[in-house]
Amino acid sequence: MPHVPHVPALLVIDMQNALMAIAHRAAETVAVIGGLRARALAAGVPVVTVQQQGKELEPGTEGWRIVPELAPGDGELIVPKTSADSFLGTGLDEILKGLGVTEVVVTGFATEICVDTTARQALSHGYDVVLVADGHTTSARPEGGELAAPERSLAHHNEIFRHLDFPGRSIRVLPSAEVDFAATGAVNTAL
């Protein structure tokens, strides 16, 4: 069976000012994604910034803008979306296929909603998935509410993705330090 090389793209989902204002460990997550973004760009790996828009995230407003540390440069790919699914009603699939991408490295906000939905949809669209264990976050919220505490939710989703089985697809959960864009132009498969 011929070896099909992994051709990765880094997805940066909804890292917007208004959302980071309510995010758990926002600064740490921005720093992790910023490091991955720099490494991807240095290795010639495409970075696709996905940007939510809607009632509370009106295009052009300060809250809608991508945080300055992750703001796409001239010519970088930006995909606007209006749902939790970064593929639904957007050109994301066409962009990735046009670039020859076979694997998406998923980061962003919010773990249980847009990150989870997009990662699962990527599998359904034929992509391998790397969920960056320390590269996604959720909203800050108190213990004892209806939603799981942030750290518990992050750990839960990382563990779920470690156990997902999707025939014909590779699904990995890696800390950002183990994502290696430069070694071969692909994500390092060593665990």
How many extended strands? 6
Question: Helical region count?
Answer: 5
Uncertain regions spanning at least 5 consecutive residues:
184-191
Helix-strand makeup class? alpha/beta
The CATH H-level superfamily is: Isochorismatase-like
> Please, how many domains?
1
The fraction of residues assigned to DSSP E strands is 15-25%
Largest sheet: 6 strands, parallel
Could you say what the CATH architecture is? 3-Layer(aba) Sandwich
CATH topology: Rossmann fold
Estimate the helix proportion, in percent.
25-40%
End-to-end C-alpha gap: 23 Å
Lateral strand order in the biggest sheet: 3-2-1-4-5-6
Rg, Cα atoms, Å = 16 Å
Give the helices and strands as they follow along the chain: EHHEEHEHEHE
Average pLDDT across residues?
91
**Shape designation:** globular
Text of the CATH class: Alpha Beta
GO molecular function, one term: hydrolase activity
Domain Isochorismatase-like: 9-140
Protein name: Cysteine hydrolase
InterPro entries: Isochorismatase-like_dom, Isochorismatase-like_hydrls, Isochorismatase-like_sf
Structure description:
There is one protein chain. The protein has 191 residues and is an alpha/beta fold. It has one domain: 3-Layer(aba) Sandwich (Rossmann fold). The protein has 5 helices and 6 strands; from the N terminus they run E-H-H-E-E-H-E-H-E-H-E. A 6-stranded parallel beta sheet has the order 3-2-1-4-5-6, with helices on both faces. Strand 5, helix 5 and strand 6 form a beta-alpha-beta unit. The radius of gyration is 16 Å and the shape is globular. The C terminus is likely disordered. One of its GO terms (molecular function) is hydrolase activity. Keywords: Hydrolase. InterPro entries: Isochorismatase-like_dom (IPR000868), Isochorismatase-like_hydrls (IPR050272), Isochorismatase-like_sf (IPR036380). It comes from Streptomyces daliensis. Pfam families: Isochorismatase (PF00857).
